[in-house]
Write a structure and sequence with these properties.
A seven-stranded mixed sheet has the order 12-13-14-11-10-16-17, with helices on both faces. The protein has a six-stranded mixed sheet with strand order 7-6-5-8-9-19, sandwiched between helices. It is built from 17 helices and 20 strands. β5, α7 and β6 form a beta-alpha-beta unit. The radius of gyration is 23 Å and the shape is globular. It is an alpha/beta fold and 464 residues long. The protein binds nicotinamide-adenine-dinucleotide (NAD). The site of nicotinamide-adenine-dinucleotide has 27 residues, from α9.
């Protein structure tokens, strides 16, 4: 019997459709088709390989609004957040279209008398991508445009919660003329993922999702001799110095903590006011948070949409209960705006007087919940950030260059911002965290993607 999974509209709580799960046998067929398509695709000159990607980009531009609507409908984020995500996704394709330059190697003549040497980058074969629910438009495109442009073939296993956006992207790639077998999608859960991880024809695995699964993917695929990059979860700190521009800082914090209902791996989830910053910061933050509108994300101008599923809402509400139980002071209580029985809503929540040993201070909640931990000095704030098991992103808000420089150099975090709420690297820079936020060596997109999806060869030539 075919196993299926419902896809919900989180704003109404109603199922939109059911998707069938791929079995191990289905995954095997997809991987074999990708393997069959690989030699011809690898031998296609890179300037020709990027042509379907140029046409793909044009189709995405033309249909960006349709994609944003699909995304909001299955994920719940506001239509503005969805539009921004589609824009970011398109930028990935734009960068991958530059592959003829990005793949270039080095060369040096006469490394020894009459001997010339050069490096070339070759694709590695069938690559697999496993992606999370929170960026169904963008995260798959951190992977396959780069992998394909490098000459690999690709099998994507998107999140079973949000398969419709990746599917529509895939249809546009087919319309753009990608040859059969070069790009395929398999829907499914652990069975499909395990089939990819254990398939001998899969050479590389890219993963983005939660930390326990990232660890599992990394250890399992690496043990099979595969190349792996596995991006995991996060607990991101926003540090505010007393000299920060408070109105602009509050605007950035609100967007960071409550944008996409906090379901972002770069969402600020611990706010760290230093010294005198706490008073003016929290007063303004609480007032502005109360103004956030919560509702159906597909309606224009909504401040925050629902979270992805009823189960996820329950988990977030559980964390809020836990925060209260452990003695934190609740300033804005999102539970009052969580409507039972309809959509999967949780309102923006702020806890003050949070201690570093509390559950809400340590664990990833992945919802609109911000914990405030006050510190006396910048050194104390840095020590707090570095004590976290995660190291995805962080930002400092200050008008003092010395504080900013010290912060940027001392924190053990992969992506660090100054006066930026969401310090997301653009498509042409690499993206990943440190510590339990990342397992592997080469990060997502940017030049790292080119290195990840290629193997380097050194050629030495002498003519007698
Ligand atoms: P998840 O780990 O539950 O799922 C991610 C993918 O793994 C999905 O495709 C899912 O089907 C698959 N999966 C789930 N359980 C599995 C299992 N037991 N075995 C094999 N595969 C399994 O993550 P999610 O809830 O979809 O996404 C949210 C998480 O992703 C958060 O932790 C967030 O921080 C993280 N995330 C990280 C980044 C980053 O750049 N570091 C970016 C986006 C999201």
């Amino acid at each position: 019997m075919v196993r299926t999974h419902p896809v919900y509209n989180p704003a109404t709580g109603e199922p939109i459709t059911q998707i069938p799960y791929a079995t191990t046998a289905d995954v095997d067929l997809a991987v074999k088709a990708a393997h069959k398509a690989y030699p011809a695709w690898k031998d296609t000159p890179v300037v020709d390989r990027v042509q379907p990607l140029y046409r793909f980009k044009a189709l995405l531009d033309k249909n960006a609004e349709e994609l944003a609507q699909i995304l909001t409908r299955e994920n719940g984020k506001t239509i503005d957040d969805a539009r921004m995500e589609i824009k970011r996704a398109i930028q990935m394709v734009e960068v991958a279209c530059g592959m003829p330059s990005l793949m270039m190697g080095d060369s040096l003549n006469d490394v020894s008398r009459g001997i010339d040497s050069r490096t070339v980058r070759e694709p590695i074969g069938v690559c697999a991508g496993i992606t999370p629910f929170n960026f169904p438009g963008m995260v798959p495109l951190w992977m396959y445009p780069f992998a394909i442009a490098c000459g690999n073939t690709f099998v994507l296993k998107p999140s079973e919660k949000v398969p419709l956006t990746p599917k529509r992207f895939g249809e546009f790639l087919v319309e753009a003329g990608i040859p059969e077998g070069v790009f395929q999608i398999v829907n499914g859960d652990k069975e499909a993922v395990d089939a990819l991880l254990h398939h001998p024809l899969v050479k590389a695995v890219s993963f983005v999702g939660s930390t326990p699964i990232a660890k599992y993917i990394y250890t399992t695929a690496a043990a099979q001799g595969k190349r792996v990059q596995a991006l995991g979860g996060a607990k991101n700190h926003l540090v505010v110095m007393p000299d920060a521009d408070m109105p602009k800082t509050v605007e950035a914090i609100i967007s960071s903590a409550f944008g996409a209902a906090g379901e972002r791996c770069l969402a600020g989830s611990v706010l760290v006011p230093v010294g005198e910053a706490a008073g003016p910061l929290l007063q303004l933050l609480e007032a502005k948070t109360r103004e956030i509108t919560v509702g159906d994300g597909s309606k224009e101008g909504m401040g925050m949409g629902p979270v992805v599923t009823g189960e996820h809402r329950k988990k977030i509400l559980g964390y809020i209960d836990k925060g209260v139980e452990e003695g934190a002071k609740i300033l804005c209580d999102g539970r009052t705006r969580a409507k039972e029985g309809t959509g999967f809503f949780v309102g923006p929540t702020i806890f003050d007087e949070v201690r570093p040993d509390m559950t809400i201070a340590k664990e990833e909640i992945f919802g609109p919940v911000l914990s405030v931990i006050r510190t006396k000095t910048l050194d104390e704030a840095i020590a707090l950030v570095n004590a976290s098991e995660f190291g995805n992103t962080t930002s400092i808000f200050t008008q003092n260059g010395k504080s900013a420089r010290e912060y940027q150099s001392k924190v053990e975090v992969g992506m660090v911002g100054v006066n930026i709420g969401v310090a997301a690297p653009m498509a042409f820079f690499p993206f990943a965290g440190w510590k339990n936020s990342f397992f592997g060596d080469l990060h997502a997109h940017g030049k790292d993607a080119v290195y990840f999806y290629t193997e380097q060869k050194v050629l030495m030539t002498r003519w007698f």
